[in-house]
Amino acid sequence: LQVLAYNRHTYGTAAQRLVITITPAPDGEPPYQGEFLVGNRNVEELLPAAARKMFLQGTAGVWERDDLHVINITSALDRGGRVPLPIEGRKEGVYVKVGSWGAFSPCLASAASPQSRFRCSLGQQPLASCYDTFAPSFAIRWCNLTLLQVWPSPTVPGPVWGSGVLEEEGDFQPPTEAPPQDLLPGYLVTLLVPLAVAALLCLLLGHLMCCRREGV
Hints:
single chain, alpha+beta, 4-stranded antiparallel sheet, two-stranded antiparallel sheet, 4 helices, 6 strands, 26% helix, SGCA protein, Sarcoglycan_C, membrane, Sarcoglycan_alpha/epsilon, transmembrane helix
């Protein structure tokens, strides 16, 4: 992966080649995943390990779990967000997806309930029955909270490969035999139809040129 970065203050660019090795988690993907929108951060501010650890501490307070880990970090600009105005303190926003093996807490369930969505559509505060442990470091947009339950898909058995050596039982017999086809009708149609059309056109052209002349 070749990363091309630029300095937003000096507009200088730098390129670096990064080799990433992806290995699946030993226990698989966590079935319970929650995605939070952090409004007062940029994506590069949540990439360091210390910032992610601080965010997980705030998540543990509202999720009531200690087996949380960050699955994905995405800039809000990649989700259709607008570029912030060049005013001091404005941030792009970051989507952070967190996974756990435990169920969602009642606080998160109430914040993502249909009643809470309806209050958000009216411009009111969403339902949240717990204390916001993210504050004041992270400003969570609770109206954009998304809760997902990912169930493992059943594995389909793959094909069974043989040794690759044909057994010594005579000649190879194909599984299906192609029936003999009579190609003569197709050949005659392909050949005679264009000849007949050409003959008719010649007769018509000869009639028009020889029999339709003036005085004849």
